[in-house]
Amino acid sequence: MPRHRTLLEIERRIMKRFEQLDLDVEEEFIVFVVHLLVRDLRRGLHKSDLDKQNACAIIRFVDGIVDSYVSPVDCTMANMKMSWVMKKGRGIDLQYVKEQYEENFLNELKLLIDDILQYPESCSKTQLDQLFAKMQVFIVACYNLGCPKNHVLLKLTAQALHSVIGRSDLQNYVLKKKYHRLEYLQRLAATVAGIVIYNNDGTDGDRENVRFVVGDLEMAQKNTSSAFQLSLDEAAKMQSLCQTAIDRLIQLDPKDTTMTYRVPLEHLQRLNQFTLTYAMLQRCLGALHRSYESTVYLIEVERKRYDCVVAKINDTLAMRTAIDSELIFPHFVYISQVWSNLNNFLNHVVELNKLREQLELLVGPQIKELAEATIAELQALDKRIKEPQKTNFLDRMAVMTDFHTDGNFCSLAQADIKDFCALTMTITNGLLLPAKVTRQLCMNVNITFGLRDHMYARFTELFFEQFIPAFRKVIFNSANLALLFKLDEALISQELQDLVEEPPKRRDFAGQTEMVVTNDLSAPNWINVTWNAWDYHRETIHMAELRKRQTRDTQTKISYGQRHAQNQTYNTRQHK
């Protein structure tokens, strides 16, 4: 298909341009950008340009993508990068972070584990001492108790290890099978780590040498909460600043159904780009913050478990001089498991902070400065223009009838569009202003529309047939709005469906007999191929000898002299 070939050619040109600029850009991201941006009303390509491959339009489109990628103040590319970070940032998933850290951790410890398991059954005293030292390092590293090079921590671990396993037990350990050794090593590490953790719990613990994950989590929660709150407040402030400026530059009258403005709407679109970017940032940060809050809840639950098991161990040890190991060791194993869970939660908080920092870098101070400068520029332009322009709501909706989109309207049911006025977006072709009321205008589709007040809602109900098609085209013909409302997947899947080539109506059926190729030197036939002609002669003679010895008799021992002996009767011979 021409459309398919054109898009592939565009992607190839863009990747080549990035190679010339020595930029390492993910090809999958470029495919995402091209398929989404090609449908944009302002920066995309017309369908005729794709089908007929308009060279000038394609060059302009490629240059626009490359320039916007390297520009730090391009809002559309910033929105796409934020969306891509959220799509590919698997760090938002707690289970994924846990599995990744455990996998990387096991890969790093594999050499040490193999070294511990390789000791022979007949170990000397020196080898047992080496094994004991390596076990200490393994326990410290396995449960993140601190730095494995810290001699004080290793000494504390050695004391705990001596209380669990002695020299005779260590000699018995090397007599076990290898898989039994690994299982025992893991149980031993959990028990010893629990003892070290318990001994250093509380205010009298050795904080300089033994890591205290509870204190690390408290500090991480405090810093993360303040960082998220600061970023969310800054994004909300800038979004409100841009929306307030747009609201002052246009006047919408739902009673007279007219819109009055001095600054051209295309200039207002420049300011609206910053509103979209900060709204996108706010939603991405909100998703990360919700994931962080769920992790905070799990941390609180795990903290209660930690305090509970410490209290249980204290009660068990109180007023006793000798305790059976089967009674106390399970509590140490449990506290080490709780410790590992707290470490996983800390790793998740770290990953969420990494994603937050990536988003903040994409919307840097340069975009903020440009947004403030744009506001000042448009306000000055509004003062210079004396005669305002006035247009009708229905006329503005009619402008969108000439445009085409194949976006599925029902996909809006999954989009969160109730925060912005849908009527304002439709009339102004995408300007975002906050909504104060909500309405469900479609009876058969569960879509909640946001509107500025009840007069706006009344107008949309009266002119529903004109409003819905225009609103659909405004949303799906804007890459920024599709990203903001998370409709990009629906658009791209539709685009990819269009690019699927139809299968041919006729297809050759390979049903003929397999050809016999002489001297075929491929791997399957190599066994029957030889370079010596005498081998063929010897094989022929051998086959002839076998043929000579082949029998054609149908007799067996059972049926010697007759056929079907088992089911036949014979008359006895009559002697005269």
From TrEMBL:
GO terms for biological process: cell projection organization; regulation of cilium beat frequency. Residues 556-576 have a biased composition (Polar residues). The keyword Cytoplasm applies. It holds the Pfam family FAP206. Residues 552-576 are annotated as: Disordered. It comes from the Eukaryota. Its main location: cytoplasm. It is found in: Cytoplasm, Cytoskeleton, Cilium axoneme. The keyword Lyase does not apply. Keywords: Cell projection, Cilium, Cilium biogenesis/degradation, Cytoplasm, Cytoskeleton. InterPro entries: FAP206. GO terms for cellular component: axoneme; ciliary basal body. Essential for sperm motility and is involved in the regulation of the beating frequency of motile cilia on the epithelial cells of the respiratory tract. Required for the establishment of radial spokes in sperm flagella. PANTHER family: CILIA- AND FLAGELLA-ASSOCIATED PROTEIN 206 (PTHR21442:SF0). Belongs to the CFAP206 family. This is Cilia- and flagella-associated protein 206.
